[in-house]
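User: Can you fold this complex?
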Amino acid sequence: MKGLTELILKIGKVDRRWIFVVLAIVVFIPILVPIGMPIRATVTTKVVYDAIENLPPNSNVLVSIEYSPSTKPENHPMTISILRHLFKNNHKVFVTCLWPDGQFMAQDALKQVAEEEFGKVYGEDYVFLGFRPGGEAVVKGIVSNIRIVYTVDVYQTKIDEIPLMDGINNFKDFAFLFTCSAGYPGTVEWVQYAADPTGVPMSSGVTSIQVNEVMPYVQSGQMKGLLAGMPGAAEYEALLGQKGSATSGMDAQSIAHLVIVLFIILGNAAFFIERKRSRKY
Amino acid sequence: MSSTAILGAWIAVFLTFGIFSYLYKDNPFYKMAEHLFVGVSAGYWASIFFWTQIQPGLFGRLWPASEFSADSFWYKIYNGFSFFLPTVFPEGGIDKGHDMHLIYLIPFALGMMMLLSLIPKISWFARWGIAYTVGMAAGLRAYGFLNSNVIGQIKGTAANFADPNLPFWSLTSPSIFNSIVILVGTITGLLYFYFSKEHKGMLGKISKVGIYFLMISFGASFGFAVMGRISLLIGRFVDLIKYSGSQFHHATIWILVIMLIILGYDAYRNRGKNTPVSEDAVQ
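Assistant: Here's the predicted assembly.
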């Protein structure tokens, strides 16, 4: 028992850089040698899937991209899966961005899914409107009159010359909104200035760190489900039956969590043992 | 594989390891990556904002091609700009699908005022632009928060206890139990931040319950934060593994080895000297 106590105290005093090394190893190995842990969709992910699955054919769906390369591992698999789902069900997709870097993330996703996987025609099956600065002001602009905010698309083609934009004047012309967000401006602004005032249903995929902020909107019914971080993306890939980068990262994610929990337990144990000893003497 | 893609991979690997090297201690690789990131981000954002908003949205509404007239005084000013900056002010007006809106001179003037903060003597002009921005943002956000975060949340979480279809027990769907938890958590959490009375007696006990709710919330936030950071680490590792392949000339392996040799040599040269490890690096 004394030996164990001394070991715990020793671990409690270890240079934190060794913990970084251990964490790097436990993340690295499962990426190289996948274990294939089972992935089961949570209720919030299933609700997003069902909301898109139940849309009437040829629905106009607005997809807004609000993330940058810094959160690509979490957000990008969500965008890819959602676009796959929308194009598989032959919906019309309109892509906007509230983040400047989002424009390149969206471009990358559209090239992969719309062009290479589904062979969709630009201007007829999807439109890429691009980035506009202004955060919530842009959202309000889209809600009242999208044609004032966007007079040209990302390729500088006039909106009036794009066939798919016929009849699209404001947010109510969309049947559904999906926003893939990593912060401000993002999901919260879409709920506050678009979905709540108009009643147009929306779902979102967010980074893990945002989940606590956004989840109340799901619980209250202001949003239809939520893709929560990399696990949410992996669950959506499982529902679609098409594995992607999120699924392959989940082994490393799960093992890293176990190791972190272990470190937290050991750290706390060392803290309490030390406190008990200092009181004793 | 194009040479641009290979070069991009080598730069990405170098910057990734440069940032990671801070976990060992502050060093020139980290500094280089950090400064490059800040500089490139600022330049990139400035460029994107100019070409997506200021040029098409502001100048495009002040001098639209649809109303171009070479004889008008207004477009003679434009032609003057066009002489010096033909890329920003192309010949014949800016064709971005706008009509002329001279009211946009007001945001143009406010924007210029904000730039005047760079000149100390007349920097006070910037307050006008800032005052407008703050006022507009406050007005916009007040409505959004009141509508969605107050009214929407109350409407969405309030439960009719007399509803026979509402089950007493369910954790994943609306239930009487969930509604009671939300009610108790909201009231006790709010009372914890009530500082007009000392937290003693009944108020002390209630606010203590509030602390437990807050702790659970912070714990959930911490858990999600860890999950997010691990996801980003996975993303970087996936890229590093990809770039270690022969098509990228083993960029990951070469840069890792070179960086380890340089940092190792530096540590060997400074052995015995008490070089303090950055406190931030071990936090």
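The first strand of chain A starts at residue 60 and ends at 66. Residues 43-240 of chain A form a domain with the Rossmann fold fold (CATH 3.40.50.10160).
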